[in-house]
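Input.
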Amino acid sequence: MLWSTMLGGQGDDLPHSLIVNANNEVYVLGTTGSPDFPVTAGAFDGTFGGGQPYTPQGSA
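Output.
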């Protein structure tokens, strides 16, 4: 095993891609409906870029 973590918040979290770059930095791409998803300031783009909107529902 190279990496392991628990990642998520109180709502639905829907990862769709996991990417590792040449510096061994891991990127997780997806959608979250969690108001408490753990991120650092400026770590995500909160704008909608088009397509069909989807808002995750439910809780963990």
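The longest strand covers residues 13-20.
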